[in-house]
Specification:
This protein has 421 residues and is of the alpha+beta class. It has two domains: 296 residues, FAD/NAD(P)-binding domain, CATH 3.50.50.60; 102 residues, no CATH class. Helix content is 30%, strand content 23%. It is built from eleven helices and 22 strands. Strands 1, 2, 6, 7, 8, 9 and 22 form a seven-stranded mixed beta sheet that branches. It has a four-stranded antiparallel beta sheet with strand order 13-14-12-16, with helices on one face. Strands 3-5-4 form a three-stranded antiparallel beta sheet. A hairpin with a 7-residue loop joins β19 and β20. α3 packs across α4 and α10 crosses α11. The two termini are 39 Å apart.
Length: 421
């Protein structure tokens, strides 16, 4: 006897991939539930001060858009609320990004999910799942008022940590397969600097060199790191607190969080002493939590490879474009970039967002199928909008088509929503 579903699609995680999945499914006519453990949406942009969308544009002398659809909807909404939302070229990497403000982004995402009538459950986690053979049947949601059992036709894991896949008992690997994880970064947001003060990178590099002679926490990014003045506030956004992590144990994350905050305060003191114009600088924010690049990788039906990326491989079964270069943080503070070949982007194929052994589970964001090198490209938030939207549309299509999958149908729906394939 078949139980009537509470939802067509349940999405786990409210970051860029989860937003893409929930809105993509809702635009396809699905009844959608979006589950998020924090009290706000946005993922790393709002939980970890990662105040830049990477991957919306290709590399090059001019910005060439690679992600549209829901990603473009989000940019349009933040523009309505006062942010520029345009392409900004990082002087450090030469990559094109979109700068963010966390409070505007939170409000913009609230507006979008409500506009699409998505049932959002904040302060809620997926605590357990029920499965029958090769299908997920239901999820147990744990919130402030207790637990609730919800039945759905299809599910999307956009958690970033493969939480849904792990609860379903699917195979996964940690980090690069040998247990090694990419380094963490705790972005610093610094206020108390005159809006017209030009940040002198040469002076900053000299200050870092002097600090590294006797400082408690030597700075690995001796070039000064990524340092950008933020829109609206003119605060300084600084990426220079980098930490290695050995495993996914809570004790390891606790040590990293505390060490990161100690480093941030010590680096702030260094700036006050060594950089003219920073005498009254103060720390606006570091979190709420450290920026996590990598945790679990569930097994998908296709694993993107380094060769797919560097060759710019285009495919007939592509459901999203990925345009961010391979960015690896194997050693704290020493990122390595490898550009994309071909047309400047590569296709994410349909099977890369499908769970290997469950017919109605899709992946969005950094949990899609990818080897350690390809992962360095697909994990960023701009690309996560695209893979998340594809996952949400696929889940809605599956529900509509009486539990059948059809890549062509998904591609047609994505194109109708304005997504770039």
């Amino acid at each position: 006897m078949r139980v009537e579903a509470d939802y067509d699609v349940v999405v786990c995680g409210g970051g860029a991939a989860g937003i893409g999945a929930a809105i993509g499914a809702a635009k396809s006519g699905a009844k959608v539930c979006l589950v998020e453990k924090y009290g706000f949406l946005g993922g790393a942009a709002t939980t970890s001060q990662v105040l830049a969308y990477c991957g919306l544009f290709q590399q090059g002398r001019e910005p060439v858009r690679a992600v549209s659809g829901v990603g473009e909807d989000v940019i349009a909404e933040i523009r309505e609320l006062g942010l520029d939302g345009g392409a900004f070229r990082s002087e450090t990497t030469g990559n094109w990004i979109v700068l963010l403000d966390p409070e505007i982004l939170k409000f913009a995402l609230d507006n979008l999910v409500q506009r699409h009538r998505i049932d959002v459950k904040l302060h809620t986690r997926v605590a357990a799942v029920s499965r029958t053979g090769k299908r997920l049947e239901a999820a147990t949601l744990a919130g402030m008022s207790g637990r609730r059992h919800v039945v759905a036709e299809a599910f999307v894991d956009a958690s970033g940590d493969a939480n849904l896949a792990m609860l379903a008992g699917l195979d996964y690997q940690i980090g690069n397969g040998e247990g090694r994880l990419q380094a963490l970064t705790m972005p610093m947001r610094i206020g108390g600097i005159a809006p017209d003060l030009k940040i002198d990178r040469d002076a900053l590099q000299s200050a870092i060199a002097r600090y590294n002679e006797t400082g408690r926490y030597p700075i690995q990014r001796t070039d000064g790191g990524i340092i950008i003045r933020l829109p609206l506030s003119s605060d300084m956004w600084w990426m220079t607190v980098d930490l290695d992590i050995a495993d996914l144990e809570s004790d390891s994350f606790t040590r990293a969080e505390m060490a990161g905050r100690a480093m941030a305060h010590d680096y702030l003191s260094m700036l006050r002493r060594a950089m003219p114009g920073f005498e009254n600088a103060y720390l606006v924010a570091t979190g709420p939590q450290v920026g996590i690049r990598e945790t679990r990788h569930p097994v998908a039906r296709y694993q993107l490879t380094k060769e797919d990326v560097i060759s710019g491989r285009l495919r007939e079964d592509g459901i999203a474009r990925a345009a961010w270069p391979i960015e690896l943080h194997g050693e704290a503070g020493k990122p390595v970039y490898t550009p994309i070949g071909g047309e400047g982007y590569f296709h994410v194929p349909y099977d890369a967002i499908r769970a290997k052994s469950l017919a109605n589970l899709w992946y969005g964001g950094r949990v899609i199928g990818a080897d350690p090198d390809a992962y360095g490209s697909i994990r960023v938030m701009g690309t996560a909008f695209a893979t998340g939207e594809a996952a949400g549309v696929s889940a809605a299509d599956y529900a509509d088509r009486n539990h059948k999958t059809d890549c062509r149908s998904v591609q047609a729906r994505l194109s109708a929503q304005g997504a770039m394939i």
